[in-house]
Amino acid sequence: MENIQLGIAPIAWTNDDMPELGAENTFEQTISEMALAGFKGTEIGNKYPKEPSVLKKYLDLRGLQVASAWFSAFLTTKPYEETEQAFIKHRDFLHAMGAKVIVVSEQGRSIQGQMETPVFDQKPIFTDEEWHHLTTGLEKLGTVAAEKGMTLVYHHHMGTGVQTTTEIERLMDNTDPSKVSLLYDTGHLVFSGEEPLTLYNQYKERIKHIHFKDIRENVAQEVTRQHDSFLTGVKKGVFTVPGDGMIDFRPIMSAILESDYRGWIVVEAEQDPAKANPLEYAIKARKYIKEISGI
Asked: So what's the pLDDT on residue 1?
C-alpha cells in the first residue's frame, strides 16, 4: 500500500475539451478542494500555471504533487518529428514537476472531441500502415522519455483507434515493454464494453499508471441507443467517481494490491460540475477508496 499514491484530475472541476463546463471554477479552488478531499496528487489542466516554479509553489502549499499530464500524439496522421518536438517540451515540463510517467494518447483520426460524431458508430479503425506508424513512433517516444528517467504510459480511450481489448492487445504485442507501458482506465474499458479485471491481470506487469472512473450504466446505454458522441455522453453524466456507478472496484483493487503495483491511482471522472459538485464527489471517491483498500 505504501507504494500507491492517490491523485485526482482537475477535469471534474473544469473541462478542457468543453470550457463551458466549470468555467467559473478557478485553478486555486480546484487544487485547494483536491487537498481538502484528501488527495496527494493532481494531473494538469489548462488553467494550471505553465511555469514549473510557479506551479510547484501553489502545489507545495497544499501538499500536492503532479502525477502526470495528458499528451496528444499524432503519429498516424503527421510526421513523427512534429509529435516528438511537442513531446520533448511536455516531457521536460513534467520532469521539472517531478512526475515519473507521461500519459500519451494517439489522436490521429480521433472522434473523442467531436460533439456531433457518434462515439460507437464512427470509431476510427487503424489500417496496418497506421498501426506501424503508431507502434514504431511510440517506441521512439518511449526512448525519448527514458532520457529523463521517465516512462511512457499509453492511454486507451473512447473514440480513438486504441479503445477495445483487441486494439490494446495489438498495441501491447507490437511494442517493446521497456519502451511502452500501459495506462489502465476502468471507465473507458467498461464504457467500451471490455472486461476490466481480465485486462488488468493480463497486463499487470506493464501497467504503470491507473485512472479510476465509474460508469452510470443507464447513461451508457442511452449513449449507445441514441448514437451520442463521447462529449455528449460526458455532459449527460456517463462518468462518475468510483463507488457511484456500475463498476465493482473491490476485485480490481485487490488485483492491484496483489500485483505489487507501484505508482499513482488517479480519480478522473469528468462530469458537469454544475450537476455533480466536484468537492462532494472527490470526498465520496476518497472515502470509497479508503473503504475498499485501507489506503
From this structure: 77
